[in-house]
């Protein structure tokens, strides 16, 4: 997955710098130069095409929530506003998260990590199942979903067959009595969700073999 480009929009340059640095500290994220107004933000959106917007509500030349609504990209709202109407308006506009300022930058880092997992789950090249969609929503909300929610019965069987050992798709297939193709498909799905780790091992013929291990 390519790096996630993030635009911070805040008229306080000190706060904007803190948020920018929090973004830059996370693996897989790139922090763009912050914008201080709606006008600057719109220029940055057009020029840099960020993936995620972190916007304050109160900006010198406009409303950050309306910026989120019109930007057409994923967004968090970071604001001192705590009235219910503003919070509802932010979520209605499409904000994935609402953080009340001031907050510890570790809180923002944790939300960014959640977002990276959420984004990864929703960028699969294959059609998404209901479990995939539910898992992505749960990850973004910080919920701990049980195995029955995020994994099918076959996937649970595949994970149980892996145990603590590393195995190939053929070995897993033999253990649970399914075809190699079926085992490979489920192992690939579990790897995309971060539940299984994949490595390559080269045999005597020189052909690489995918090896799977249950993730932590």
Automatic annotation (TrEMBL):
UniProt keywords, alphabetically: Activator, Cytoplasm, DNA-binding, Phosphoprotein, Transcription, Transcription regulation, Two-component regulatory system
SMART domains found in the cross-reference section: REC
Cellular compartments annotated: Cytoplasm
Response regulatory domain sequence ranges: 5-116
Gene3D superfamilies: 3.40.50.2300, Winged helix-like DNA-binding domain superfamily/Winged helix DNA-binding domain
PTM-bearing positions, type 4-aspartylphosphate: 56
Keyword GTP-binding: no
Pfam family, one: HVO_A0261_N
A cellular component term, taken from the record's GO annotations: cytoplasm
Annotated protein name in UniProt: Transcriptional regulatory protein
Native organism: Microbacterium proteolyticum
């Amino acid at each position: 997955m390519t790096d996630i480009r993030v635009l911070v929009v805040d008229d306080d340059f000190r706060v904007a710098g803190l948020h920018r640095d929090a973004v830059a500290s996370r693996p897989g994220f790139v922090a763009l130069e912050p914008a201080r107004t709606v006008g600057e933000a719109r220029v940055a959106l057009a020029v840099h095409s960020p993936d995620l917007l972190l916007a304050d509500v109160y900006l010198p030349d406009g409303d950050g929530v309306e910026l989120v609504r019109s930007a057409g990209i994923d967004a968090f709202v970071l604001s001192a506003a705590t009235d219910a109407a503003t919070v509802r308006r932010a979520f209605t506009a499409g904000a994935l998260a609402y953080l009340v300022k001031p907050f510890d930058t570790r809180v923002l880092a944790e939300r960014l990590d959640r977002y990276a997992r959420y984004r990864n789950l929703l960028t699969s090249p294959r059609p998404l199942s209901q479990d995939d969609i539910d898992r992505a929503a749960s990850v973004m909300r910080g919920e701990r979903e049980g195995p029955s929610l995020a994994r099918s019965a076959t996937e649970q069987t595949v994970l149980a067959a892996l145990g603590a050992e590393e195995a190939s798709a053929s070995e897993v297939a033999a253990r649970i009595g399914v075809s190699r193709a079926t085992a490979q498909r489920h192992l690939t799905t579990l790897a995309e969700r971060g539940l299984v780790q994949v490595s390559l091992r080269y045999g005597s013929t020189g052909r690489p073999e995918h090896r799977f291990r249950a993730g932590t």
